[in-house]
Write a structure and sequence with these properties.
2,3-Dihydroxybiphenyl 1,2-Dioxygenase, domain 1; 128 residues; 2 helices; globular; 38% strand; metal ion binding; alpha/beta; 4-stranded mixed β-sheet
């Protein structure tokens, strides 16, 4: 086997403090490590997403915008597994996060929905 899982997903944000608040305080991902790299004027925040996976949240001065949404070449979206989609949607909306209507995956019959991070990165909740 080539791989036994995903180690991390890297995200570049435009406003570090806003994105840190979103991923840590709203989505609840625990901080593994936070590093400021003075030579790059950049932060790297490692977040635990469970199952030994992580998000690496980066800040860089003046990052370019995403070319289009969501069909730009490259990563389309990031999906998080949830046990209770309705409770997760209610939590997000209570915290002022807009969430799309819940849909059903025609291939798996599982329910899912999308919302966006502070930079408009499409994030998915997928009920397991």
């Amino acid at each position: 086997m080539f791989s036994n899982g995903i180690h991390h997903v890297a995200i570049i944000c435009s406003d570090y403090e806003r994105s840190k608040h979103f991923y840590v305080n709203i989505l609840g991902f625990p901080i593994i490590q936070e590093t400021f790299r003075a030579a790059r004027n950049s932060y790297k925040l490692d977040l635990d997403v469970g199952n030994s996976g992580a998000i690496e949240l980066f800040s860089f001065p003046n990052p370019p915008d995403r070319p289009s949404k969501p069909e730009a070449c490259g990563l389309r979206h990031l999906a998080f597994k949830v046990d209770d989609l309705d409770a997760s949607v209610a939590y997000l909306t209570t915290n002022g996060i807009a969430v799309e209507a819940i849909r059903t995956d025609e291939l798996t019959s599982k329910r899912f929905t999308f919302f966006k991070d502070p930079d408009g990165l499409p994030l998915e909740l997928y009920e397991i």
